[in-house]
Design brief:
By secondary structure, this protein is of the alpha+beta class. The protein has helices at 5-15, 40-43, 48-61, 74-96, 107-118, and strands at 22-27, 30-35, 66-71, 100-105, 123-128, 134-140.
Length: 147
């Protein structure tokens, strides 16, 4: 790899008309690229532009590293909202014993839900749908629901 991921992202952003600095943080085997901007267009609807930027960076660097891109703290805010939603849904499933369906979510958003539910005894998750955006079912174990 000739250029660092943060340099590549800065160049892509400059070509898009956003000459903004990018900071790199290495976290738990993942490269986090932080765009120093509050431009909503760089986030996109439901973070789709960030997802696309991640894909471009992975393609350019060879797809070997896990790369996440954030802009103006969007990912952290989104993660907290999804965690709160998932925790409420987990409680509903535990109380009622019925499957709860959330979404649709992008892959990184689904991962948050799957990780939270994996810590709970007696519950499992299942994604359903085509493409990037899929529903997530939180299912009590022993439920007849299967994909």
């Amino acid at each position: 790899m000739s250029a660092e991921p943060e340099e590549i992202l800065e160049n892509v952003l400059r070509l898009m008309g956003f000459p903004v600095p990018v900071r790199r943080e290495d976290r738990e085997g993942e490269i986090l690229l932080l765009i120093d901007s509050e431009e909503g267009i760089l986030i996109g609807r439901k973070g789709k532009t960030l997802e696309a930027l991640e894909w471009v960076i992975r393609v350019i660097i060879g797809g070997e590293a896990s790369v996440r891109v954030d802009c103006g703290g969007y990912r952290e805010r989104q993660k907290k909202q999804i965690e709160e939603m998932a925790l409420r849904a987990i409680e509903r499933v535990k109380q009622r014993g019925e499957t709860v369906t959330l979404g649709p979510f992008l892959p990184a958003e689904r991962r948050i839900i799957h990780q939270l539910v994996s810590r709970e005894n007696g519950l499992k998750t299942q994604s359903e749908g085509e493409g990037w955006e899929k529903l997530v079912h939180i299912i009590p174990e022993g439920s007849p629901r299967t994909a």
